[in-house]
Every structure is written in C-alpha cells, then in structure tokens.
# Entry
Amino acid sequence: HLNEMKLALMRTEQYAQTALKAIQIENLKEDLILEPCDLGELCQEVIRKQALPFILKKLQLNFTPFHQPVITDRKWLGFILEQLLSNALKYTPEGGKISIFLEGETNLVIADTGIGIAPEDLPRVFEKGFTGNNGRMDKKATGIGLYLCRRVTNLLGHTISIASEPGVGTQ
# Structure
C-alpha cells in the first residue's frame, strides 16, 4: 500500500501544481525566460518523475534518449510535458504502452495505447473546463490541463495538436 500512497501523494501534488499554474498563467509573459534547452534531457527528467505510475500500471515505455536543442522556457515546457505524460498515464490501461519520440527535428510526440478520445470531443479538448466523455467517466478530470498546455505553448511560440482514435490511443 506504500506505493499506492506515494502515487496518491504524487497526484495531489500534481493537481496543486496545475492549480498554481492556472493562477500564474495570467502573468506568464513576465515569468518567461527563453533560452536554449535540451528537449531530450527535459523529457528524461519528466519520465523519471513519473516512474512510479509506469511501474504500478506495468506500462511499457518506448523512449530512446536524444538531444535536440530548442529555445524555450524550461520550467513551463516541463509543465506541459508533465501534463501530457500524466494524461497518457491516466488513460492508458494496465499493460499498455507509451512512446515518446522526436518526429523530424521539431515535433515531439507522446503517443499512448490508451482508451482514446471520441471524435466529437477532439475539437474541444483544449477548451477551458472541457472534460468530454472520458473526463465524465473518470470523475477526476478538471478540464484545465490541456487548456493550460495550449495557452502556454502559444505564449512560448510552440504549437500543440492532438490525434486520437477510441480504443487505439492518442498522440
């Protein structure tokens, strides 16, 4: 039960961090520090933080370390990656797989073999407060994580997109 308690504490901390980021986003431009960052190293840090859910759910991780310099705010891009990986972990059933890879030189992909998103929900997943069918079933979704991801990526000059198929997974 110790690992389950650690996982619950980790989730609580993550929800608290998301709430704080939602407040900070109003003055985000003042907080941004754009500088060179190694995207591959940042991915490794985020993966290490999420090791426990991978272990407890017996999920396979497909990640080959890479080095890709980007100009970004390391703290805020780390927040985005944590949100996206957290969603992949939440909606991927036990024994599934999560892949993180670089497509070309500029597109980072986080792909899972999770439950997927209904086609009618896809156009709205980045809207503030939208939880969709999966969020209503989960009853813990807030509809704020992907909204914050979109807002922050826009302010950083990055882009974010989503593709999903129910029963197959999400990228």
Strands lie at 35-38, 60-63, 69-72, 97-103, 107-112, 164-165, 169-170. The longest helix spans residues 2-24. The chain has seven helices and seven strands. The mean pLDDT is 89.
